Amino acid sequence: MNYGEILLRNELNVLLTRGVNGLYIYAVDEELQQALKNAIK
Fold it and tell me: Is the pTM of this model over 0.70?
């Protein structure tokens, strides 16, 4: 796992744990969509 992936996972964790109603992310870029899906796993 590279540094960018570690940062992304941490940022998502902070946003998801502090959001009252959760967090919705929509990515237009297909590569970013795939990266976000992989980060959740």
Answer: no
